[in-house]
Amino acid sequence: MDISIIIVNWNTKNLLISCIDSIYNNISNLHFEIIVVDNGSQDGSITAVKEKYPNIILIANNKNLGFAVANNMAFKLMKGKYALLLNTDCILTKGAIEELFNFMEKHPEAGICCGQLLNMDGSKQNSFSSFPSIFFYLINESLLKFIWPSKFPSKYKSYSFPIKVDSCIGACMLIRKKALKDVGYFDEDYFFFFEETDMAYRMKKKGWEIYFIPSAYIYHAQGKSVGAKPYSRMMFYKSRYIFFKKHYPNIYRFFYVLIFLRVIINTIINFMGIFLTIGLNKSIKNKFLTYLNLIIWHIKGCPQVYPKGNKE
Description:
nine-stranded mixed beta sheet; Spore Coat Polysaccharide Biosynthesis Protein SpsA, Chain A; alpha/beta
C-alpha cells in the first residue's frame, strides 16, 4: 500500500463526496486506501459514503472528537507507507499526489510534505507556516515575510523548486509513516488547529525535514470544514495557547499577555472603523464582533470551545 488517505468529516456531506470523487478521478498510479473518520455528523454523511463508496474504510464516531483524535484513530489502522491527510473541502488536481509521493520517495529525510493550496478561483493560499515566535507578535507577520523572505517564506513569492519550511497546513499534507512512528501521533490536547504545527515541531527536533512542493496543486475551499466564527477563532486561539504552553513554558505568560493586548487593540481599531463608516461596512462590523467575543472569552479564562451544534 502506497498511501492511506485519511479524511475527517463533520457535517459536510456534499464536500466529502466531492473530495472522494476527486481522489478517484485524479490518482491513477498509486495503490491507495481511503479511511473516512466521521465525527458524529447529522447530515447523512455516513449513509452517503456507504451508498456511493461501500469499499471505503469508515469509522463512525457518535460525537465530534476533534481533528487530532479522529486522525489518530485512522493512523492506527493505516496500511500505507504514507498518510495523506485531506480536508473535505479539498479537491485534488491530476498528478498532484503522485508528485508529493515521488518527492518523498526520493528524499528519505522528509517527514512531511505539502503542495500549493489554491482558492477556487485559482489564486494561491498559504500552504505552509512558520513556527510561532516572539517576532510574529512584536512585528507584523506580513512585514516579516516581506523583509526576511528567506526566514519567513510566503505565498507572495513564486518558487520553482521544493523548499524547506517549518510546518505544512493540515488541509492536505503527506506524512511518512516511519516519521509518524518516530515522533508519535497528534497531541490530543488540540481539538482543532495547530495539531500539524505541533507534529512538525516535534519532527524537526528529531531531525526530520518538512517540504513545500510548489508544483503540486490542490483546490481548497478554505474554512468550509471547520465551522463558523466566532467558534473557529476561539478554537484557533485556544490551540495556539496550548502550543505555547507546551513548547515555550518559560515565556508562555508573556505570549498570552501580548496576544490578548493585540485582541484588545484590534477590537478598538474595528470599533473606530464602524464609527467612521457609520456602521455601513459589514466586514468591519463582523470583525469587531469577532474580536469582542474573543475578549469576553479571554475574560472567562479561555475555556475549550466546540463548533456550534457539536454534541459536547
